[in-house]
Amino acid sequence: MMSKENSENHTGLSHFLLQGLSDDPELQPVLFGLFLFTYLVTIRGNLLIILAVSSDSHLHTPMYFFLSNLSFIDICFISTTVPKTLVNIQTQNKDISYIECLTQLYFFLIFLGMDNFLLTVMAFDRYVAICHPLNYTVIMNPWLCVFLVLMFWLIMFCVSLIHILLLNQLTFSIGTEIPHFFCELAHLLKVASSVTLVNNIFLYVVTALLGVFPVTGILYSYSQIVSTLLRMSSSVSKYKAFSTCGSHLCVVDLFYGTGFGVHLSSAVTHSSQRTMIASVMYTVVTPMLNPFIYSLRNKDVKGALRRLLGRAASGPWWIPDLRAKETLWSLTQML
User: Fold this and answer.
1) Span 283-305, pLDDT tens digits
2) What's the pTM?
3) What is the 3-state secondary structure (H, E, C) of the chain?
4) Mind telling me which residue stretches traverse the membrane in this protein (predicted)?
């Protein structure tokens, strides 16, 4: 058993040390600029999607209801990790308090799981719309959509809370350094001083249930969609039906591809630096790219954004500065 000089339990431990992406002082301004730019672009892009969906009656459908929820989750998702990273880079301080670390992990797990669930239900929505168009409004009714989102929130609240309660029972050494730029569950379990068998079992079970089943649901939905499209005789109908899935498929590939890359890199290499770089892709880059994917590939969203920016550019109460109005108007012409 470790002595009190070398170890503390959850009641006495005051803070962890986050390794961060680099210790090179010359790289700190570059990392700060990149993270800040990515964060601001993600917030603004996803807010524009939410405003466009809420302000345009043509987008008040289940597909765009889930899209606006996905944008909200992406804002929350990136906000759990990037602000603390920016503070640590700016202050040259690696400390993160024990409570702050568990809080960050709790919300990170919630929003990660919500991303997973929403991508799955969005695939189901496209499956119903293409394979059962006559029953679409009956199946995907507003009550079911709201119920699914609320159910997903409840599931992730409970699952994340169990993770935190189990983690709170572990013992960590004084001055424990986490080889990551945020409090990631798998890395916290690796640096624990006590036995983590129960934590790992629960982690594997949850990953299997909340990972395998959603991916299976997405694959099944798109297999049925492809089967239905192949039976269509009109190429125009095929293109119109599948064009509504293009943006979602890109986001799914990006989310699960980068997530799989993180786990693969951690399995085949012992370099924490490479694992952190891979983690940046799905924790920072993916939420930033989602709004661009939907706004560039989806005509309905592009049209709603054009109308939204057009109203903002022409309304005197929105933007009093003439130069800002001209900038917004030029954006509407680019869309």
Assistant:
1) 888 888 888 887 766 677 777 77
2) 0.85
3) CCCCCCEECCCCCCEEEECCCCCCCCCHHHHHHHHHHHHHHHHHHHHHHHHHHHHCHHHCCHHHHHHHHHHHHHHHHHHCCHHHHHHHHHHCCCEEEHHHHHHHHHHHHHHHHHHHHHHHHHHHHHHHHHHCHHHHHHHCCHHHHHHHHHHHHHHHHHHHHHHHHHHCCCCEECCCEECCCCCCHHHHHHCCCCCCHHHHHHHHHHHHHHHHHHHHHHHHHHHHHHHHHHHCCCHHHHHHHHHHHHHHHHHHHHHHHHHHHHHHHHHHCCCHHHHHHHHHHHHHHHHHHHHHHHHHHCHHHHHHHHHHHHHHHHCCCCCCCHHHHHHHHHHHHHC
4) 30-52, 64-83, 103-124, 144-166, 201-220, 241-264, 276-296
